[in-house]
From TrEMBL:
GO terms for molecular function: RNA binding. InterPro entries: ESRP (IPR050666), Nucleotide-bd_a/b_plait_sf (IPR012677), RBD_domain_sf (IPR035979), RRM_dom (IPR000504). This is RRM domain-containing protein. Keywords: Repeat, RNA-binding. The keyword Cell cycle does not apply. The keyword RNA-binding applies. Residues 63-147 form the RRM domain. It comes from Effrenium voratum. PROSITE patterns: RRM.
Amino acid sequence: MFGNLMMNPGPWPMAWMPEAPSQPAAQESDIFQKLLLNHEIPMSGQQPQPQPKAQLDISQAPALIRLRGLPFEANEQEILAWMSKYDVSDKVMECKQAVRLYNKPNGKPMGIAVVAINSPEEAEVVLQTLHGKNMRNRYIEVFHHAEGDGGVDKAYVQTPGSGTTGG
């Protein structure tokens, strides 16, 4: 008896469905499948999958600041730790190479970094907070930065774990 119901369910499932929408059902099914595949609608018993953040580039940052006078051995993590000491590390934009360190053409560090900041207003706060502070025994100067500003135009960007790339 039950086997027959499973094979031929009859009209009862249609009783709870609303009237046919103006769009064809095939399009709705396609939309539903796309949402499921993109994890925008969780299936029963599943938690929604977080969408990965778009990985921006530092050139897309709303504001940039330049740090000058850094210790030559400083790296990105040390700079971010130094910024967190003054409670401004949360203003650094989450993007690819948010902190860009520069080398001279001969490969030696310049003691200059460019940092991507979330907004021009936050860049002003970071500038006011960090300008004149010391990292180790070095006095750090902080400036607003625009691509092509002097001081880094003939420099090379340090890439993590390797030498240099043209910048």
